[in-house]
Amino acid sequence: MKGMVVVGFVLMALVMFSSCSKLHPIILVPGSGGNQLEARLNEAYKPSSLVCNRWLPIPKEEGGWFRLWFDPSVLLSPFTKCFAQRMILYYDLHKDDYFNCPGVETRVPDFGSTQSLLCLDPKLKHITTYMADLVDSLEQEGYKEGETLFGAPYDFRYGLAAAGHPSSTGSKFLEDLKGLIEMASTSNEGNPVIILSHSLGGLFALHLLNRNHLSWRRKYVKHFISLSAPWGGTVQEMITFASGYSLGVPLVDPLLVREEQRSSESNLWLLPSPKLFPSNKPLVITENRNYSASEIPQFLEDIGFSQGVHPYRTRILPLINKFTAPEVPVTCIVGSEVKTPETLFYGRDGGFDEQPEVLYGDGDGTVNMMSLLALESEWAGMEAKQTLKVTRIPHVSHTSILKDSVSVAEIVREISTINSVQVLRSVV
């Protein structure tokens, strides 16, 4: 009996030692707007006004690069227009791809690091914090920046497209993310990584897994943890396209950013999926007609964004009709019981220039519950080859899931469990 106790203490010590020395490296993939973007202007830039011609944030360094997102000047109406012009994308029908506004060059700082994910403006850390609390909690568990903890920021304006259509910026991000995963694993004795994504980042991560061979996935990816992923899009996105969305930022007129938001390739990706949302359920109701998820092309026409119809039909619809199981363990952690836009009502007088009256349903405040839980229904009956765990956390919103003490504790607990399974196997 005494010998068994001693063995027990030895095993416990081995587990504690192994948990510190053999953590699965983590790759953080942020959501839309969840990392900084930088820009510079060249001679091809044609400002929309005299204000935009003269106004330029203080360059970060030689070469003229400045922070495009997020900069507090966006809060002031004249500068909001300049910001929107510099953020806007253009779809080239001939090339079948999206590009920056002429004269605007953009880049994503600190790829591989968590630095541009912690907050959106280092000078306003407390009010622009994003993943800082989550990163701090992971570091308390023994994770170290650049050793076992990495960030994968990207240009979130761009998305992906269905097979046969180019999506140069989004595809390049997947290539970079793949390389980062391989590097993180190789530098940690071949230990496969944990991909930890938030919101839109989950869609990119799932496509990365499914666009690579099963042998690669099983070699390099231990687990995929998705936070608040909008698998089937959101009704909130229809407000963005119809009336603009200020993202809760005070003083910003949503109409000033509407054109820029409509131009975003990734925003088209986030419109409600007709695969998930019932075709007989109207999501937008007006005095003239109603629109369900299966009527998005007509909706885009009627709000005055006809140029979005072709890329939506050809690039987006085929992309969102599949939820292929990656055959690596997946955990979805989502907020619930937060009122979330479910049906939008627009009157005749204001058209789509006014914010709608909203009927709310369940979700995380941004993503509808049907979308958050899509993988449960899509992968039902696939338990033999696809492990899926879904955890709901009541009263936690889409963004507070990264900060709320209960949700962060749940995320850390899930990661600890993944690490512990490996440790126990190595000890046995």
Task: Fill in the keyword field for this structure.
disordered N terminus; 4-stranded mixed β-sheet; disordered C terminus; 6-stranded parallel β-sheet; Rossmann fold; alpha/beta; 428 residues
Largest sheet: 6 strands, parallel
CATH architecture: 3-Layer(aba) Sandwich
Classify the fold: give the CATH topology.
Rossmann fold
CATH superfamily: Alpha/Beta hydrolase fold, catalytic domain
Low-confidence stretches: 1-20, 423-428
Could you tell me how far the N terminus lies from the C terminus, measured between alpha carbons in angstroms? Answer: 20 Å
Q: So what's the overall shape?
A: globular
Verbal overview:
- By secondary structure, the chain is α/β, with parallel strands linked by helices.
- It has one domain (24-34, 108-427): 3-Layer(aba) Sandwich (Rossmann fold), CATH 3.40.50.
- 37% of the residues lie in helices and 17% in strands.
- It has a six-stranded parallel β-sheet with strand order 7-1-8-9-12-15, with helices on both faces. A four-stranded mixed β-sheet has the order 11-10-13-14, covered by helices on one side.
- A hairpin with a 4-residue loop joins strand 4 (89-92) and strand 5.
- Helix 6 (168-186) crosses helix 7.
- It is globular, with a radius of gyration of 22 Å.
- Mean pLDDT is 91; it is low at 1-20 and 423-428.
